[in-house]
């Protein structure tokens, strides 16, 4: 797989699909959560599938299997830290406005680089429902700026 999650995939807790084997689903997603500590490229996809650990269905399990196929094909990906003479702190942020079908909340994430090295990343679901794309971006930018000042 080229990406850990299908583009524009919208998962819902009550989409009518048959229920999946919950114990196996939880075990696999738990392992992916552990793996995401060193693989920022799968953080968003793992965050989305982890929302359905309580009552997963076959669509959720298919999304988990896609992440596993992506990880299998990208085992050589890693984070390398090398010595650099000059390092500038650069941060990026983005969100997906109202992408969660069940509660219409946005998910935002950020990543910080010191030179060419990734030093911090995070992905969170917003605690409030943003009424516009601009509001969701503002919340994301505010949270990222708070993280940059804290770091």
- Give the topology string: H per helix, E per strand: HHHEEEH
Biggest sheet, in brief? 3 strands, antiparallel
Low-pLDDT regions: none
| Terminal CA distance | 34 Å
Please identify the structural class as seen in this structure: alpha+beta
Number of continuous helical runs: 4
Tally of separate domains: 2
The best one-word shape is flat
**Radius of gyration from the alpha-carbon trace, in angstroms:** 17 Å
Number of strands: 3
Secondary structure: helix percent = 25-40%
What strand line-up does the widest sheet have?
1-2-3
Query: Strand content of the residues, in percent?
Result: 15-25%
Mean pLDDT: 86
What does this structure look like?
- With 151 residues, this protein is an alpha+beta fold.
- The chain has helices at residues 22-35, 43-50, 58-73, 133-150, and strands spanning 89-96, 107-114, 117-125.
- The chain folds into 2 domains: 1-78, no CATH class; 89-150, no CATH class.
- It is 37% helix and 17% strand.
- Strands 1-2-3 form a 3-stranded antiparallel β-sheet, sandwiched between helices.
- The protein starts with 21 loop residues before the first helix and ends with a helix.
- The model has no long low-confidence stretch (mean pLDDT 86).
């Amino acid at each position: 797989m080229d990406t850990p999650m299908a583009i524009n995939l919208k998962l819902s807790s009550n989409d009518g699909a048959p229920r999946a084997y919950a114990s196996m689903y939880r075990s696999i997603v738990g392992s992916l959560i552990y793996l995401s500590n060193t693989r920022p490229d799968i953080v968003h996809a793992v965050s989305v599938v982890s929302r359905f650990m309580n009552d997963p269905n076959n669509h959720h399990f298919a999304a988990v299997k896609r992440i596993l196929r992506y990880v299998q094909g990208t085992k050589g990906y890693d984070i390398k830290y090398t010595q650099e003479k000059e390092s500038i702190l650069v941060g990026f942020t983005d969100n997906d406005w109202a992408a969660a079908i069940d509660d219409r909340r946005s998910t935002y994430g950020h990543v910080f680089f010191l030179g060419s090295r990734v030093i911090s990343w995070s992905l969170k679901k917003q605690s409030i429902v943003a009424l516009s794309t601009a509001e969701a971006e503002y919340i994301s930018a505010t949270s990222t700026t708070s993280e940059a000042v804290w770091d």
